[in-house]
Please model this.
Amino acid sequence: MRVTIEVNGERRTADDVWPGESLLYVLRERLGLPGAKNACEQGECGSCTVYLDDTPVCACLVAAGQAEGRSVRTVEGLAGGDGLDPVQEAFVATGAVQCGFCTPGLIVAAHELVHRDPGATDAEIREALAGNLCRCTGYEKILDAVRLAAAKKAGERA
Amino acid sequence: MKDFAYVAAPDVATAVRAAADAPGARFLAGGTNLVDLMRQHVERPDTVVDISRLPLTSVEETKSGGLRIGALMRNSDLAAHPLVRTRYPMLTQALLAGASAQLRNMATVGGNLLQRTRCPYFYDRATPCHKREPGTGCAAVGGFNRSHAILGTSASCVATHPSDMCVALAALDAVVEVEDVRGTRRIPLADLHRLPGDTPHLETTLAPDELITSVELPAPAAAPSRYRKVRDRASFAFALVSVAAALEVTDGTVAAVRLALGGVAPKPWRAVEAERVLTGAPATEESFRAAADAELAPAVTLDGNEFKVELARRTIVATLRDLAREGSRA
Model:
């Protein structure tokens, strides 16, 4: 089947898609966007997190046909121009990236939180990121990154 | 994942017709459970009817003062809906206690009602499971069964129903509205899920081609209510025990109580016996303990889940005690 999705602001089409393919597979293998990662394929780890119509979802559990005609934003689509998005900058600045496999999913989840609630408490940050697993950092640096990005966003709004 | 025919349904009539025409078809809503089960070859439908575009996403007030919730409302949207947050806070708490943000953003009300057990042996095709393959056996009874059920089980199956939302809906006396090519009908939530008996593969009273279209909540009670979930970590874990409760106390006596349990039974468990003991009794810790004991008296435990009886007892008592205090302050 043919699947047409708006990805990072561009209309993209994939042909000969098998209905059993996931949105994650379409993004990575058919549209050349390897940012979202394929790990557990069960919705447990969050490494495939992308925005689907403005809400973060696990792309591994979205059947390709369900994404037809909808809008997707991946980690590749967060930064404008040549620079990084402020959330990405915060991850770099705080040393929140080690092996990097969980990072794209965490960046998308953190991006959504920072824009929705830049005043989030630590408990709210932990809950918002509960669906993203990291086996390297122990999460402390990730919390630092989100606090930094949130403070910056809150400052912009003040 | 096995090959299958994919039908994207634009409306309810097309969806139920497609399901009626293809025996064994499955409806695909949020996909958070079904896509996973298909990938594990636990579910192997020949036809998948994608209902995710059906216009069943509204929350409407009913004439009787309740709410009608569209079956494709996402868990996150339902939890955040102002009428749910203010009138049925127990439901919002239960929804937000389930899964992760990413999953709540896809999971729907109808899909949550029909989600399948997380018994690890149900997912593991290398082990016997009466629910997955009737007649093969149960690996959980002699296996790792710490998370398994203590009420309503059978020799065939000890798996729990995993939903948080359904526990709140059980306490709220929700009614499920379904449709197929023959027409529509209404099913009280208490009658939607079956106990396993010797047919644990039959989990609900729905016909295979019946589609859940909405869930109706009766008018809310004024009593304080709460959903309390006990689990191994603070977030993104299934309940070991959960309690949905509403308690109305008048002059120190229990005037009305609603109590339902999660994590302990193969279906959302309305604690009818505890409610019977409590109604009209003094609103004291002794009564709460007697009610919990009455409900848990028929519990049957396995090697790994004996702790759930005491955990359930304490969680019931603590929840009712908190609600009694809250009510006396009001």
Notes: The CA atoms of residues 78 and 100 of chain B lie 15 Å apart. Chain B has twelve helices and twelve strands. The first helix of chain B runs from residue 12 to 21.
